Each structure stands twice: as C-alpha cells, then as structure tokens.
Amino acid sequence: MKNKNIYTAVLCMLFAVFLMSVLDVIAKILLYKFSVAQMTFLRGGFSLIILGAIGAIRYGIKSFDTQIPGWHLLRTVLMMISSFTFFAALALLPLVNIFVIVFVAPIVVAALSGPLLGEKVGVWRWSAVLIGFSGVLIILEPSTEFSLAGTIYGLIGVVTYALNTLTTRKLSGRESALNLSFYIFFGPTILGAAISIFDWITPTMWDWFLFFLTGLVGGFAFLFFNLALKKAEASFLASFEYTGLLWASLAGYFIFNEVVDSKIWLGASIIIFGGIIILYSCLLYTSDAADERSSVDLGGRRI
Length: 303
Known about the structure:
Strand content: under 5%
Structural class: mainly alpha
Order of helices and strands: HHHHHHHHHHHHHEE
Oligomer: single chain
Mean pLDDT: 82
Number of helices: 13
Largest sheet: 2 strands, antiparallel
Radius of gyration: 20 Å
Shape: globular
C-alpha cells in the first residue's frame, strides 16, 4: 500500500464509521415506533434510490453492468441477514450492549482476513485491534439488561457484517465501489417490503424525513466503506471501526442526555492509541519496502 492510499483509506473509513453511527442513532429512535421489517425496507429502499440516482447521473446506466452477479447475490443475502438481525437486536437491547457486540466485528475481520483473503495479520495489527477493544470495554460497562434473543441477533449481525467486509475487500479490484454499495441493498429492501405489509404503520412527514436520512447516511456509509477497502487491507482498517464509539458517546450526551464521564475519555484515548499503532506500523512497513525497492544491486552490493 502506498502512503497516499493509506491516508485516503483511513479518512474514508473514519467518515464511513461516523455515518454508520448516525444511522444507528436514527434507527434506534425509529424502532420505538416501527417494526424491524419496515425499518429495513425503507432504509434499504432509500439507499437504493439515492445510490442508483448518483450512478445513473454521474456514470450512466451502463455503469451498473456487472460480471460478478453471483457475488452480488451472496453479498445482498448477507446484508439481508445482517440488517434484520442487527435492527432486531437494536430494538431488544440497550444501545450500550449493542455497541459491545458490534465491536467484536473488527476482531472477526482480523481473524478471518488471513485465511480468506491471504492478508498478513501480524502482531502489530492484532495488538491494535485488541487494544482498541479493551478501550471499548472500559467505556461501555455493559448493562445488566440481558436479552438472549437480542444477543443472538446481535452476534449473527456482527458475523454476517464481517463476512460482507471480507467480500468487499476480495472484490475491490473487480467491481466499482458504487456497485458494491448499490447491489447490497436489494435483498433487505425486497424482504423488508414483503414482511412489513403485515404490520405497516404509516409514517408522518417527520418519520419520512428520518427514514430518508437512514437511506442517505446508510448508502453513503457503505460507499465510503467500500472506497476504503479498495485502497487498504481489511485487517488494517478493522481497528478504526472503534472510533464509532466516540460518536456514540457524543450522541448519548447531546441526544439521550447520557453522562460522559472520565472512563469514556480514558477508553477513547486507548482506542486512539490503538489506531496510531496500526497506522504507524503500516507506514513504517511501506517506507521500508520503498527503500528496499529503491536500492540498486551493483556487484553483489546494495547501495
């Protein structure tokens, strides 16, 4: 990875995580009133419309042509499972518990990126992921409000989300970021529409605006997420997902009147430290590799 690609990938990933945090907050509010199916349908539907319009206007209809329909089918099925189970967990569990489960995803990505993608996940990347997760646990202190069904839903959502992350990286050289973001929403939208017929609640104008926002931020979150994975390895980017907790803490303070105490700042510092470790190690590696390539072998000597 070139240094420029690394910086771009990190910025795209950080912005994608911010957008996903915004999505989680809006979805939590909507799920007090609407079913998981209706939430999944309208979020996916608006994302399809927005991303489809961007692709058609910017690149033309031909830009949606694909040579890997089977992969897109697999990814939209994974997204369908992930969306339903995660929104179900969000409706059953406190937000704090949800974030504990969600932040298992970077560990899953780091663990599977080696055998599935052939990435080299060394001690630096593992250290950064585990350091970041320790910061998460310091901040969260999961509540005692336990739901077995909610926890199971959350874990299924995390695993399918991680698998989608890995497929994104695998296909990053064969498909555009826009298509990788667009086709993924078909499954959740179709299944959500079919199920929500049975318990449909007509949204108010304000509700429609919030649903539109879920589609907007959700669609762009995946777009920037996929752009990041086109420029950097999944195991490298995994630990940066922990920054979502910082946004969640701010949302909790300003929206849900939750107290931001000293343990949050301590945990946030640890999360940032983990991100710095992995970024520094990657930049050091690429710098060493560049020096090695720039040296010239003359008479058996490296100069």
